[in-house]
Amino acid sequence: MRRPSAGCLALLWGLAAALLACDRREPAPTDAAVPASAGAAADAEPAPPDGAAAELPDAATELPDAATELPDAAAAPDGATAEPPPDGGSSDAGLPGSSEGCPDDMVLVDGDYCPLVQQICLEHHKEFLKDQARRTNPYGETEGSTSVSERCLEYKQPTACLSKKRTPMRYCVDRYEWPNEKGELPALLVSWREAAKACEGAGKRLCTEDEFNFACEGEEMLPYTYGFARDATKCNIDRPFRQRQLTLYRYERCMRHPECKAELERLDQRVPAGSMPACVSPFGAYDLNGNINEWVVRPGRKSPDRSGLKGGWWGPMRGRCRPTVGFHKEEDYGYEQGFRCCKDAAPR
Fold this sequence. Notes:
Elements: H1 6-22, E1 106-113, E2 117-118, E3 121-124, H2 126-134, E4 152-155, E5 160-161, E6 167-174, H3 192-201, E7 205-206, H4 209-217, H5 251-256, H6 258-267, E8 293-297, E9 307-310, E10 324-325, E11 337-338, E12 341-344
Parallel strand pairs: 8-11
Antiparallel strand pairs: 1-6, 2-5, 3-4, 6-12, 7-12, 8-9, 9-10
């Protein structure tokens, strides 16, 4: 009997690996329901996912380590072109916020932060209410898991600070999602470790949970960057969910595989950074709600649990300032996961 040649073995191995990488499926994204009062626990970690993160490839596949650099091209797959901003993207002059004490591509966040807030929802999305009614038993208790996100259409004004005193904070945050350039699509398929390394390479760092909260909500403790009422015309949120059907690789590798590339382009509903002018925080940072889920650091935790995701993405998720999704590990990555950076502000 003739032995198969090395070339044949390589071809068979490649076909097997491709099948393993492309035939796994995942459940629809879910987002834990916050109690209808949406009170002090509004920033609690949910149990189910906030977004559909791509499964990690098998150990035999090419997994870049934490030192992998993120190319500029990671912001947009081929065929997804970003529209240029009205001012050509050449300057941030005239934009809201101040860069005092910060690099020109960042805005200053300076004020007194409330660690514990009470945000009371006055009206929920009908999809959430219907799901709650379906899962409520005769004793008025909600049972079972759900794939329906808790979306609040309007919050009571004002938000109440439950902390005995506020914490003074002063730091810089990127004006836009990475690569932090107006008119560019935000990066995706990026792990927490890769994001941390990219920020470090830029002389910055990943934001903490509290830094993200304050940059997003301001001293008024807004549930959404733009106010108390949910508005899909202001931020890139509430777009129809598209079920992921193929396992996705990290960005660069995905772009080399036609099936992965086509699947990413089908799923992708990002918009260029800063292209929705009303989606801006009180300090002048854009797209902190929606567009792409952003990696943050969860202080006091050990590897691989230091990672959190905040802000929501383009799908029908919570998409507001306070909630943190905390179960994604530092190596995880997904088509809805990106980041931005923070940095200490210069002394006054």
